[in-house]
Amino acid sequence: MSKVLYPISKPGPGAVGKTSTWRWQKPVIDLNKCTKCGLCWLYCPEPAFDIDAEGYPVVKYDWCKGCGICYEECPVDAIEMVSEE
Amino acid sequence: MTFSMEIRWHGRGGHGIVSASNLLCEMAMRKGYYGISIPIFGAERRGAPTKVYTRISSRPIYKRSEIKNPDMVVITDATLLHIVDPLNGLKKGGYVVINSHRLGEDDMSLLSQYNVIPINAVDIALKADLRVGGIPVVTIPLLGGILKVIGIIDLDTAVSVIREKWEGELGEKNVKALEMAMEVIKA
Amino acid sequence: MSITSRVKKVLTGNHATAYAVMQARVDVIPAYPITPQTTIVEKLDEFIENGLLDASMIRVESEHSAMAAAIGASAAGARTYTATSSHGLLYMYENLWWAANARLPIVATFVTRAIGPPWNIWSDHQDIFTLRDTGWILFMAKNAQEAYDLTIQAFKIAENPNIRLPVGVGYDGFYTSHTSEPVEMLSQDEVDSFLPDKRAIKPLLDPEHPYTIGNLPDASFNFLIRKNMWSSMESSLDYIRKVGYEYYLLTGRNYGDLVDKYRTDDAETIFVSIGAMANEGIVAVDKLRARGVKVGHMALRLLRPFPTAEVLDVLDGADRVIVFSRALSMGKGGVLFTELADLAYRYHLDIDVYDVVVGLSGVEVVDNDFIKIFRDVSEGVFDNKETIFLLGGKYV
């Protein structure tokens, strides 16, 4: 008897490979301006943000697609979109 | 004499490689050749790597499966060289028509065993004011390089197909970009 | 553009179909979008918007409603068209039976796509084969040209007053629906004179003489309804041939033969497949013939009614048939295999029929798959009692 194969997939990073390759621009955070509000982390649709031990957001560049939503949402303009070139 | 060529396009969602491949087939058809353009759909997102296969032949074409050993690869963005292995299976001495906009010195060594046709497609598209949604349309300048290599389609035919596809100003911008590319390659 | 003279254009299978539907001057198009069908209906919407097609597009809330609206429109005597795929087809399923039993000459395109879960957008033929027993006349095209040609013919067949059955034209999602290739289109005048006058469609509804449709009769009447459909199906073969030959005279493309034969005349082994993979089978035949092997390929372009005479004619003289199915009847075998296998018994054919399942869920089928199976069957690796599964060049 063969083992039953169920149509399930488990969530985890990178089902379609590193989505960083889709990116034209990347978000760069100015930690001097950052107020640790966490909105970038909250709004990121991937999610491609971590929060470090001090409470600052860290971009996971392997998965960030460069959509710019964090840049749009940051209330203190601490995020800049920088060309990949 | 029989003519047949297999071309594999590597681009990103939004670059327009599907439209460019279709145009190429239409142009080939006007010259009495058969053409088939096979897009590969996966994650249909702007920026995600995409692929299209074009077959052109003087004989009817049946195959519509993957092109594993192309005669030519077309690369719309040099960064793809390190992401999707676009040279995989390319025939020895095959052609690489590549947007040289972000092509580095070390990239050139990767390409050394092939016939490389680098075209600064971003520069040409910007000079021709050819943009869609603000992004320069790089596929039309690259099409100039392809036409140069395959040699079966004259400029007049190419221009008339483009003008039928895009009427008015947009058509003229496309024509200008194609002509500029063919001029650059000639030099 | 309105097509004033014959023209050849590079088109996707979906756009070729949309042009054929436009040229057939349909009246009503109820539709709901699903990949990979969507671009047919989008194109038709564009034709309506640009004044090239005078039709009502009914934007319904589901495929079940799409077919329900198609039933209503067709019952009122309108030339009616819709299209769907996969889960959309399954969602309209009960109404697809309703359309057939009520003898409504609806034409539909079924762009084949696998059925989930897990979710999948690529082509296999599991969806269209669920229509096998409904009473729909079913074609399966292998390229965009056939999609165009068969769609034009479909209206003529469906509306024949002695047939009055819905007609479906199938082709593979992406491999045909989104692939662009040269398609020769007829002029509008040619289509107008080829197709019957749509005003001659006899409405099922008759407000002058009210009656109910589909009420509860005694069981034997129901039996006779189905038997009558069977008879119409059987006798439609002659008319489908006639329409096919008429189209052949007009275009030089032969549909009258009902099956698509490639180098079958002296073949000892016949490959049988349908849809896009038939193209790969044809390439495989050329490669094997170059090595002196007598093989041929038959694409079953007409699935229902089953073209028994034509198939027997192709099989005559062959000693082996290898059937490639892109759909599986669980616990039985490849669906296309089961379509062919009974012929060997009924007509006492001295022929081995092999059952190969390939390309499920859109897995690519290539010429080398046909060649590999041919080689292994010839070497006796398999007998014809088993169902063979080939995935990406490997047996699984």
Biggest sheet architecture of chain B = 6 strands, mixed
Helicity of chain B, in percent? 25-40%
Report the biggest beta sheet of chain C as strand number plus sense, adding barrel if it closes.
7 strands, mixed
Within CATH, the superfamily of chain B carries the name: Pyruvate-ferredoxin oxidoreductase, PFOR, domain III
CATH superfamily of the largest domain in chain C: Thiamin diphosphate (ThDP)-binding fold, Pyr/PP domains
* Total number of helices of chain C: 13
Number of helical runs of chain B? 6
- Average of pLDDT of chain B: 92
Task: Specify the overall morphology of chain B.
Answer: globular
Please state the second-level CATH architecture of chain B: 3-Layer(aba) Sandwich
**Hey, roughly how much beta strand do the residues of chain C contain?**
15-25%
Coarse structural class of chain C: alpha/beta
Write the layout of secondary structure elements.
The complex is a heterotrimer of chains A (85), B (187) and C (396).
Chain A: E1 25-29, H1 39-43, E2 49-51, E3 57-59, H2 69-73, E4 79-83
Antiparallel strand pairs in A: 1-4, 2-3
Chain B: E1 4-12, H1 17-30, E2 34-40, E3 49-57, E4 72-75, E5 95-99, H2 105-110, E6 115-119, H3 121-127, E7 131-132, E8 135-136, H4 139-150, H5 155-165, H6 168-186
Parallel strand pairs in B: 1-4, 4-5, 5-6
Antiparallel strand pairs in B: 1-3, 2-3, 7-8
Chain C: E1 7-12, H1 13-23, E2 28-31, H2 38-49, E3 56-59, H3 63-75, E4 81-84, H4 86-91, H5 93-101, E5 107-112, H6 126-129, E6 137-140, H7 144-159, E7 167-172, E8 180-185, H8 188-194, H9 219-251, E9 260-262, E10 269-273, H10 277-290, E11 295-299, E12 302-304, H11 308-315, E13 320-325, E14 328-329, E15 333-334, H12 335-346, E16 352-358, H13 367-378, E17 387-391, E18 394-395
Parallel strand pairs in C: 2-3, 4-5, 5-7, 6-7, 10-11, 10-13, 13-16, 16-17
Antiparallel strand pairs in C: 1-8, 6-12, 9-11, 14-15, 17-18
